[in-house]
Specification:
Blueprint (H helix, E strand, L loop, with lengths): L17 H13 L1 H7 L5 H11 L1 H8 L3 E4 L8 H12 L3 E7 L2 E10 L2 E6 L18 H10 L7 E4 L2 H10 L4 E5 L9 E4 L2 H12 L5 E5 L4 E8 L2 E9 L2 E3 L6 H11 L11 H9 L13 E3 L11 E4 L6 H14 L3 E8 L12 E6 L5 H4 L9 H6 L4
Antiparallel strand pairs: 1-2, 2-3, 3-4, 5-8, 6-7, 6-8, 9-10, 9-14, 10-13, 11-12, 14-15
Keywords: ATP-binding, Nucleotide-binding
Protein name: ATP-grasp domain-containing protein
GO molecular function: ATP binding; metal ion binding
């Protein structure tokens, strides 16, 4: 079974327009030095002036019928916004979404203390410090920041040419991971890179979404999404790619069929397609291979139940030293809401006993992951977001 040809396999279940994404993400990296230079000039009064200058545009779009407000939660484009909206309703907070040319946007507004406050998906009080949001989504700049402050992070560098990527490959130790320097949801990210040819293919894929590309060592283990709010780590969701375990008898393709037959009803099937076969090839495995008993084999670089993977809230069992290090990272970034992506083999064990690291920090994390885990107790993170306004 193969996905629709109109869907980019490297984007996965969250496709974007490559050209628009390339322009947006490349400019965000390219303009960062200018933003850094202008930072000292930014004050509360300057922000108010900018808001005043931009104020006529939404008004004009509304008059022309291009922009409209709505109060239909079903139109919210992400579950992240829906959990915020549902919590707002519980608290008696009026909230509205925005459509532009009939398309729902991630931009919303809520009436708080008699005043409409506009926000992108997550409502953050305007008086809180958000300076690090200007750069934390830049994976290269974040890596430099973490290294400077002794926060565990995988070694790696950014590259803009194929030659630079290959030089990083030759000087490091496989496996590698390659991804756009800016962007989210694992789009055009390639893992398990062992050869120069694989590096070239991965670099070309990442380059489709951003001129700047990250090449770094691949840490082993599950990916954990840790959410930091108002100085505290409030949730840690485990996300796994689809995996099978060898029994010494069945071929890989047979194990995939058995996995699909026994999966949880909320988990999607693992699709056998060209993308999966190339992923297996990088691990020197084919659909006809018989895995030795006990061998765990990943079937994709994408994680979560929508790819046939796994998701569980594991905050209660996370080792306190890991929580403390994530909190330290959040305190250093000094922002009200941050989503950290962490790779570690055993979340319950002392971090000093294993190789681990924070690979990304997200200024707009998908907090809904804590609300709907496949296993583990749900955490109402949306409530903690609204508590910022208390």
């Amino acid at each position: 079974m193969s996905p629709s040809k109109s869907i980019c396999p490297d984007c996965g279940n969250n496709p974007v327009n490559h050209t628009m994404e390339f322009i947006d993400e490349t400019l965000s990296v390219f303009m960062q030095p200018l933003f850094d230079l202008l930072k000292p000039l930014r004050t509360k009064h300057v922000d108010q002036l900018i808001d005043y200058i931009l104020l006529p545009f939404p008004w004009g779009f509304r008059k022309l019928g291009l922009l409209k407000y709505h109060d239909e939660i079903e139109k919210a484009p992400t579950d992240r916004t829906k959990v915020i909206w549902n919590e707002a309703k519980k608290r008696g907070i009026e909230m509205q979404g925005i459509t532009f040319l009939g398309k729902p946007l991630e931009h919303h507004r809520a009436k708080i203390k008699g005043k409409w406050e506009s926000f992108e998906s997550l409502p953050i009080p305007p008086y809180l410090n958000i300076d690090s949001y200007m750069w934390m989504d830049d994976k290269a700049q974040l890596k430099t920041f973490f290294n400077k402050n002794t926060i565990p992070t995988p070694s790696g560098k950014n590259a803009t040419t194929q030659r630079e990527a290959l030089n990083i490959f030759k000087r490091g130790t496989a496996p590698f991971i390659v991804k756009p320097q800016a962007g989210s949801r694992g789009r055009h990210t390639t893992t398990h890179i062992y050869t120069e040819d694989e590096m070239i293919t991965a670099f070309k894929s990442a380059k489709k979404l951003c001129h700047f590309v990250i090449v770094e060592e691949q840490l082993m283990g599950s990916i954990y999404r840790a959410t930091y709010i108002n100085g505290k780590v409030v949730g840690v969701v485990r996300g796994d790619p689809p995996r099978i375990i060898g029994d010494g008898k069945h071929m890989v393709k047979e194990l995939i069929v058995l996995k699909n037959m026994s999966k949880h009803k909320k988990v999607n099937d693992v699709l056998i397609n060209q993308n999966l076969q190339y992923f297996l090839k990088r691990q020197q495995v084919t659909l006809q291979s018989i895995l030795e008993k006990g061998r765990i084999l990943d079937l994709s670089e994408k994680i979560g139940i929508s790819y046939g993977g796994f998701a569980a809230e594991e905050f209660p069992k996370t080792h306190p030293k890991i929580i403390q290090k994530i909190k330290e990272a959040g305190d250093l970034l000094n922002a009200p809401i941050i989503g950290f992506d962490v790779i570690i083999e055993d979340i319950t064990a002392d971090p000093k006993s294993q190789r681990w690291g924070i690979i990304e920090a997200n200024s707009l994390p998908f907090i809904d992951l804590h609300h709907f885990p496949l296993e583990g107790k749900s955490i109402n993170v949306a409530s903690l977001v609204w508590d910022l306004w208390s």
